[in-house]
């Protein structure tokens, strides 16, 4: 049994030398793609959060649109206050 070799776990070269685990070198390409895409997504989300927080601090609050006289009259009638001129 000394001469028996497990052919499934080793590759033989033309000279008959055994190369063990020839495919174990390097990274899995799927893992590299996953890490790159995950890193880009994480960078995008963190960048958006930083820009949002900066904008909240530096930009003034938005102005409300002025109500028209017609809408003001309706609101006052809803509240029970008589509109002027009636």
Explain what you see:
The longest helix is centred in the middle third of the chain and has 30 residues, at 29-58. The chain has helices at 29-58, 69-79; strands spanning 10-12, 18-20. It contains two helices and two strands; from the N terminus they run E-E-H-H. Strands 1-2 form a two-stranded antiparallel sheet. It has a domain at 24-61. The chain is mainly alpha-helical and 86 residues long. Strand 1 and strand 2 (18-20) form a beta hairpin.
Profile the largest sheet. 2 strands, antiparallel
Q: What percentage of amino acids are in beta strands?
A: 5-15%
Considering DSSP H and I runs of 4 or more, what fraction of the residues is helical?
A: 40-55%
Round the Cα radius of gyration to an integer and report it: 37 Å
Low-confidence stretches: none
- First CA to last CA: what distance? 113 Å
Give the total of beta strands. Answer: 2
**What is the H-and-E element order?**
EEHH
User: What coarse outline follows from CA principal-axis ratios?
Assistant: rod-shaped
Describe the strand arrangement of the main beta sheet, using strand numbers.
Answer: 1-2
Question: Could you report the average pLDDT, rounded to the nearest whole number?
Answer: 78
Count of runs of 4 or more consecutive helical residues = 2
Which class do the helix and strand fractions yield? mainly alpha
